[in-house]
Amino acid sequence: MKDLAPIIKTLLKAKASPFLLILQIAITFMVMVNAVNMLSERSKNMARPIGVDETNSFYIQTNLQGESNALGARLDEDLVRLRALPSVQGVTPMSAIPLEAWGRATLINKEPAKVFEYGAYFAVDESVVEVLGLNLIAGENLSVEDVYTLPMDGIDLSTNILITKAVAQSLSPDDWQQAVGMTVYLSNDKPQQVKGVVETMQGPWPLWYGVEFNVISPLREAYNEVRYFVRAKPGLRDEAMEQVLEALLKTPGRMIEKAKTIETLKFEAYQSDRATSKLLIGVCLGLLIVTGLGIYGQARFSVNRRKRQIGTRRALGASKGQVMRFFMLENAVVSLTGLVIGFIAALSLSEQFSQHFGLTPVPLPYLLSGMAALFVLGQLSVSYPALQASRVEPAIATRSA
Amino acid sequence: MFSYYVKLALISFKRTPLLSFLMVLLIAMGIGATMTTFTVSYMMSQDPLPSKSDRVFSVQMDSRGDGYDWGESSLAEITYMDMQNVINSGIPKHHVVISAVSTMLKNPQQQTQAIKSKVRTTNADFFTMFETPFLFGSGWDEQADKQAQQVIVLTKKSNNRFFNGENSVGRFLQFGDVLYQVVGVLDDWQLMPKFYGVKTEAFSEPHDVFIPFNTQVKNELMVGNLVNNTCWKSYEGDDFAAFLASECMWVVLWVELDNDAAREQYQAYIDRYAQQQRDHGRFANRIYNRLVDVKQYLVDEEIVSDDSKMAVWLSVLFLIVCLLNCMGLMMAKFHGKAGEVGLRRAVGASKQHIVAQFSVELAVIGFIGGLVGLILAQFGLAIAENLYNYLHASLMQMNLILVLSTLLLAVLVSCTFGLLPIFKASLTQPSSQLKSL
């Protein structure tokens, strides 16, 4: 440690080159921790449970044909036919599918005509909890008596509804279980009774803040466009999809608009996040390589320049280890200075990002582990030039330049 | 003098090949990354209609009466009734009505499966206002709009699919179970961003075919999930006529207004219209009519994603790190040339000469770095095309301006970051270096 004073002295004297390195380390650190923070936020988003059985389910968007008052019967025919298939565990008609990026937004209010909360509206039948694999955590499940069949936009009826836990918590912040039995108003200001609460079911728009705010209403919308959410018996998803399509196509004039597994749907819903994640990883790797090379290059350059000086020290009795330590310590001083500046810069960038892009600020453990990682990178990059320095022969001091 | 300095620079490269190579590589990496992300962001935020983007407006009339305070926000869609009521004002040069449906299409003469296709429903002005290029035929005329004829315009791609690229004008396409006659085939055409429809499709290709909006209405083709539909008020009946008469907001209307006077006149016209409606009990929330020009519309709808802006900032920071690194190498390089500087100074070169010589050297390095960076950026864009395969590929192509600015940027930044090393080198005292010679 007695080397510290001369190191700081030389650094202060050299000014430009160590300053460049400090700046470089600071920027690298600032960008890296923020990028890692964004990456983890995105992967957390992608890892959120949809709330439904992801591996065994798929959905079909298709048409019902005929006069509007006959569509309810058509819907029944389809459901009976599909539920009878051996590979199918359950089917429910749905007005929208989680993560499909298309659906109906609704207001969720405690009193009429007052904006309280936004969410998404799902019209389904009584089998929804069972078919989707939702987890009912309070109140009661929907029953056949709750269900209405309407041509379209059943949102205009007063019904018994299910809500997600997120909605329950927002309706009754002190004790979310109190939400059961509450009367809420949706966009049409018709009173709805909360019959039960499900743990999670994501809405249609994964990037929307209201993705967890969903209302499930027992309304079979027999309209010329319908969606069937199908849960296959475990492991039989692809088989079930084939059988379902085949069964549906027996009806003449049938149009299959979409047939997608929930896994595919989820994959597509996050494609832009995945692209950005890859880009962030690329930037981080690039930065690490360039900074590592920079430290290495600077160290080599300074070793070369100070060959005579090193030789003299060796001649005066410094051991190889002492010379090596000198360069390692020099790098440690530079790195730490850079990291401290970077720490402050990273916090302010994180502040900017959270203001402009609505990201969460970088947590402290990230900052600390980022510092540790860059410090180690610096020491690794400098180790080879330092080793070379330690191999400088003492005899060099006696030779003229 | 300049060519002499270039020669000196090249000699200097030969003397320190590794150092020079590293400098070029660093500049190239930084420039390559920056230009990759910048190209995507730049192409996304292009003006889609450079000749008239300030004269084309989205007509937004907030007809809601649900009692809520919607603040600044308004919807890009209006009701069918309002659209019908305002399009005969005669004030705008063009009206373009936008909606969409999906259907199964096939060539009736072929024994092939019908293909599910996206259909843009619009009117004759669409082709004139957007100045679409035609490969064969043309758009339909106003007569076709009025009579709601079953006519259809194909994109080049769908013409290739259904008619093998032949001139299909006059032939028929099976649309669901009815036949539509082809009147025109578009040539390659892409507005970027494709602002006129829904925001989620701003960077994808145009819909496969185009039919008159009135034909959609006459044939009762219900809008599906290709358009935004806000039904804030329930309506009686469940047939198509009830839907048309409802307060559902689902029609997008664009107008072209020649000048400010026309704009004011039109604004006054729709305000007057809204007031009349309000007197009859509609527009109960407020009168909030907006004419939003294309550029503002792109901002309002947040067409350019935050991610792409953020990517540019990240890569600029990456460039700075590369350049700082490069600056260290420049210091090393010039330090090694102190002897040469001393000699040149001793035989009469002024400080300015030294500065000029090294600036040229850095400019040459920057230029080569820019060239290599350009190649790296092409690789980067190829990767981006793969990464963003859900966006239109033309976003990942540099135009001439971008290519030139890449080179200019490379030269500029290498000289800027070279200022300090050059200044330090120019301070070399001739005597100090000559002593040891």
TrEMBL record, chain A:
It is found in: Cell membrane. It holds the Pfam family FtsX. One of its GO terms (cellular component) is plasma membrane. InterPro entries: ABC3_permease_C, MacB_PCD, Macrolide_Exporter_MacB. Its main location: membrane. The chain crosses the membrane at residues 20-39, 279-303, 323-346, 366-387. GO terms for molecular function: transmembrane transporter activity. The keyword DNA repair does not apply. Residues 285-394 form the ABC3 transporter permease C-terminal domain. Keywords: Cell membrane, Membrane, Transmembrane, Transmembrane helix. It is a multi-pass membrane protein. Belongs to the ABC-4 integral membrane protein family. This is Uncharacterized protein. It comes from Pseudoalteromonas phenolica. The lineage of its organism: Bacteria, Pseudomonadati, Pseudomonadota, Gammaproteobacteria, Alteromonadales.
UniProtKB/TrEMBL annotation, chain B:
InterPro entries: ABC3_permease_C (IPR003838), MacB_PCD (IPR025857), Macrolide_Exporter_MacB (IPR050250). The chain crosses the membrane at residues 21-44, 310-332, 353-380, 400-423. Residues 20-272 form the MacB-like periplasmic core domain. GO terms for molecular function: transmembrane transporter activity. Keywords: Cell membrane, Membrane, Transmembrane, Transmembrane helix. Its main location: membrane. Pfam families: FtsX, MacB_PCD. Residues 314-426 form the ABC3 transporter permease C-terminal domain. GO terms for cellular component: plasma membrane. It is found in: Cell membrane. It is a multi-pass membrane protein. This is ABC transporter permease. It comes from Pseudoalteromonas phenolica.
